[in-house]
Every structure is written in C-alpha cells, then in structure tokens.
Amino acid sequence: MGSPYDVLGLDADADEDAVVRAYRKRVKEVHPDHGGSVAAFKRVRRAYEHLTAGRDPAAFEAGEASAGSDRPESTDGRTGSAEEEVSSAGDTGDGDGELGPTVEYLDYAAVESYGWNITDDDLFEKAETADLGVDTHGILVVEPRETLLEAAERYGFSWPYACRGGACANCAVAVVEGDLEMPVSTVLDDDLTDRGVRLSCIGEPVTDDLKIVFNIEHLPGLAELRLPAEQFGSARADD
Ligand code: FES
C-alpha cells in the first residue's frame, strides 16, 4: 500500500506543483507500453487525484482497498460512491485488464504563448519541460466507445465544442501522432484532414497512443467553420 506521496515518489511535504510534476513523470514510467502495468497506471492516477482533491493522505489506503475488484457496481455500470467516481476518472475498469488508448494532450494556447509550432518535431518534449498545468498538458485514457471529447470531459476538462455532431469545427484537434477515426463525413475538407485535423466530439482513437493539440479552433481554415456557442445551450467555445 503506502501513501499517495509514496506512489508518486514524493516527500510528504511536497507542494502541488511537485505533485503535478511527479504525476506527469510517473504516469509515463508505469504505462504498460513502457514496462509498467494497468494496475500501476491506475494507482498513480488515483494517488494524483487523491492529493489534488485535497483528501487526507492517510485515507488513501482505505480508498485503495475499496478500488479492488469487489467494489460494488451500480446499475448504470459505474462503481462506488460519487467521490470514488471522481477519483477513478481515469479508470478503464477495475483490475489489471487492458488499458484503453492513451492520449497525450496539449493546449494550443500554450503552443502560441511559448512561440512553438504544431509542426515542431519536439513539440511535446518542449511541453514536458515547460512545467504546464494538467489542464494544459498531460495524459488521459479513452474508454471503449468513448469519443476524445467525452474522455476529456470525464477527466473534468472543458475543451471547446458547440454542436457535438460533426457539423462545425469548434471541437477540432490536431493529431500529431496516432489517429482518431470519425464515423461520419464532416465539415473538414481534405486539406484539413491531411494536416491531421479531427473533430474530438465524434473522433474515437484507432491507435493505442496519440498526441493531440486541442483548442485549435482559431487556426486558419477552421475559424470560418466555427459556430457561435450561443446557438447551443450547453456549448463551450471561446468566443
Ligand atoms: S462540436 Fe461541432 S463538430 Fe464537434
């Protein structure tokens, strides 16, 4: 067992920035594709969420026990209490089963503010060293039959969108590595799709690992395809 600080390899007096940095490092180290395991990956995620939610570190072990395979499942397929549901936002199910596609994401706002370019070969390496917050740069796991936008929202992120049906470009992301498949034809022309632009609201990963830049809706070729957010009651778009 151990404390969430132990799981992240930190001293118990580590501050929030240190927790974020340690999480970003550990989640890569324990990824199944890098010699880790699904269980270890989820445990690191739970430790990070436990600390960033401000929960008592001493209560982590009890939460770990309840995260085992005997955790009750509700009728809608979700498990545990509301707090546990939040804390397990990155889970793709209990146990040591297969991990869903892993997406490393980066906010285009950071690309712009640092003077980087989406086409930079070392874009994500630069993001790694820039000490960005997890809402700007990090890793998420997409569950089966889940779109990228739905996965991001499950993690609590507010990525842009409007129609949620492939009819605008508000939710566009640039796929730098891997691919997202879109089940219906969209407003994106061949030039945009050839440049790796995909719609996160209908896009599902078809590769195990992806790197994407989100929040690109103001890029040339996309801005004119955007819909005003006020057309959609629950839309989130940066107008
Ligand atoms: S939100 Fe309109 S296409 Fe995704």
UniProtKB/TrEMBL annotation:
PANTHER family: FERREDOXIN, FERREDOXIN-2, CHLOROPLASTIC. Coiled coil: none annotated. One of its GO terms (molecular function) is metal ion binding. It comes from Halobellus ruber. This is 2Fe-2S iron-sulfur cluster binding domain-containing protein. Its cofactor is [2Fe-2S] cluster. CDD domains: DnaJ (cd06257), fer2 (cd00207). Belongs to the 2Fe2S plant-type ferredoxin family. Residues 59-69 have a biased composition (Low complexity). Residues 130-218 form the 2Fe-2S ferredoxin-type domain. NCBIfam families: Frdxn_Halo. It comes from the Archaea. InterPro entries: 2Fe-2S_ferredoxin-like_sf, 2Fe-2S_ferredoxin-type, 2Fe2S_fd_BS, 2Fe2S_Ferredoxin, Beta-grasp_dom_sf, DnaJ_domain, J_dom_sf. The keyword Iron-sulfur applies. SMART domains: DnaJ. Residues 3-56 form the J domain. It holds the Pfam family Fer2. Residues 55-101 are annotated as: Disordered. The lineage of its organism: Archaea, Methanobacteriati, Methanobacteriota, Stenosarchaea group, Halobacteria. The keyword Aminoacyl-tRNA synthetase does not apply. Gene3D superfamilies: 3.10.20.30, DnaJ domain. Keywords: 2Fe-2S, Electron transport, Iron, Iron-sulfur, Metal-binding, Transport.
